[in-house]
Amino acid sequence: MEELIFTAESDYKRADIAVSGALADRTRSSVKKLFDGGLVEINGKAAKSAAPVKRGDVIKVKLPEAVACEAKPEDIPLDIVYEDGDLAVINKPQGMTVHAGNGNYEGTLVNALLYNLESLSGINGVIRPGIVHRIDKDTSGLLVVAKNDAAHLSLSSQIEKKTCRRTYIALLEGILKPASGTVTTYIGRDPKNRVKMAVVEPERGKIAITDYAVLKTYAEGYTLCRFDLHTGRTHQIRVHARYLGHPVVGDATYGIKKQKFNLAGQLLHAWRLTFTHPTTGEEMTFEAPLPDYFTKVLSKLTENEG
After folding, report:
1. Does the annotation count 86 as an active-site position?
2. Which residues of 64-77 are buried (b: 16+ CB within 10 A; e: fewer)?
3. Residue that finishes a domain, picked among 142, 161, 180
4. Confidence (pTM)
């Protein structure tokens, strides 16, 4: 096991800040794991992440050997909406993570893609082959996958230039007014909880633009809403729904933790996807119907209206 030993050049309120500075290539979560595993010492004694550090303290960090990370093919059924030699359009189910992360290298969309498709682009490496854009684990619906690097570059460029259009449908808490509009904010890491995203000041985030239009309201106090993305920030629709004061139903992270529908995740579905084919130049549009658990909630709300 490799060891890193260094002397603090100044005072630090927390040891994890000092270690993060010395290990600039590591994420905050990976540094936390070093402390949790008892792999950090200050002046010869095991240290907690919140321990203060004084100038001149000797910090020793034991670094476990890197584990080779490579996604493996897994026989997981996929709903392949369309496929040709350049790309595939997948209707991802709720509960499936798009690619590996946080030590989870099994059961992801990538594992399923490696088994079900003959080739995938390699631009994003061995952990995220073929992945051009993502949707959250507990969000269902459409995403396009590149089968070669040329297709990947074309599709990525379309997303960056906003010519790839992505439309979502969500059920929101409460009655949303006005019935249509555009939300423009900056989204970045929540300063109070680094796991979450939040609307932040411009210097702390990236611009996020979302169009919305109400499709239907329900007497029990819910709104079925369409969202069109102009940008693709992490958790963008979920954060903007919360910003509007009407979080997505079933979203325990940004909304109401207790809900009456016994849901496994948020009622947010990537319904429509439009892009230009990388080879033919044809504009292609795909739609995926709302999943059964979503339509059952809508049916129940409609029935209760009498």
Report:
1. no
2. eeeeeeebeeeebe
3. 161
4. 0.78
